[in-house]
Amino acid sequence: MKKSFSYKSALISLMIFLVFVTTLSSISLVKALLPQAQVSELSGDLEIAYPKYEVVKQNTTFDLHFHVFNITDYITNNTGNCYLHLYNTTGNHILEQQATGDSNLIDFKVEVNNKNFSDNGYYAYIIYCNTTIQSGFASGSFLVTSLGLYPANDNLTIFIYMMFIILLCGLLSLFIINVAKLATASTTVYDVAYNWAFYSALIINYYLAQAYLIDSFIVNNATVYLGILGFTAGILPMISLFISIFVQSAKKKRLLTVDELTGRGFTK
Which residues, at least 6 apart from 22, have a Cβ–Cβ distance to it below 8 Å? Predict the structure, then answer.
């Protein structure tokens, strides 16, 4: 009875843990869906107005539209020229592209190819415009993330890293237990459920890291671990359970009861 109770308590605690993680990710997602503000910068003789893009999705083509004004009127593609300069996360100048006129004959537009956003991190830009007698520029920075969401705050970042470490330690311990139970043919249904719950939590941790962390350490390592642990925590416990059922049934010369399958009196 004590063994069965401990497994149930652990599973209930883990489910509460997963609900807590989901709640945190939902709070961050609300922040990611905030509308973008309009930015208007006056530097020199021209004023450049454009949406303030703070976060861009990785490997996604990006269309920038902006307006240019002088003190009396707006500037179009026919009366002025504009250029976009883009700098990547290491400060390299990766793009210099002239803006074209939009179909409404008022906006300028630049289509930035998705290959320019291959790395996560902070990018910088300069929009420079001139006419025959006037000039001006706007500058700023934005963040490129895997899913185009705002990065996690400090608390959520620490939580995701701690979750990753705890889950890896837990899954390593479970692997050792799985091998011991396989050798003694004593794997129960709760053993399988416990392994699957931890593995599912690691998958959730992977997607949280992918969505909300700028650093790719967890994503890169979890990709490797998910493949290995898919066997040790997913397939191995099932194989061990079937072997245990066969061996225990053969010993008792009958089918196992529900209590025995869940660990109560399994080896009696």
Answer: 204
* CB within 8 Å of 204: residues ≥ 6 apart: 18, 21, 22
pLDDT digits (tens, 9 = 90+) for 168-211: 988 998 899 999 988 988 888 888 988 998 899 899 999 989 88
Q: Where are the beta strands (DSSP E) in the chain?
A: 38-43, 46-51, 55-57, 62-69, 74-75, 81-87, 93-98, 100-101, 108-112, 121-130, 135-145
3 state DSSP class of 179: helix
SS3 44: strand
How many C-beta neighbours within 10 Å does residue 234 have?
Answer: 15
At 156-174, the pLDDT tens digits run 888 889 889 988 988 998 8
Alpha-carbon distance of 106 to 67, in angstroms, equals: 7
Identify the DSSP state of 150: P
Q: Which of 130, 127, 137, 53 is nearest to 95 (CA)?
A: 127
Q: Which domains does the chain have, with CATH numbers?
A: 2-30+152-261 (no CATH), 38-145 (2.60.40.10)
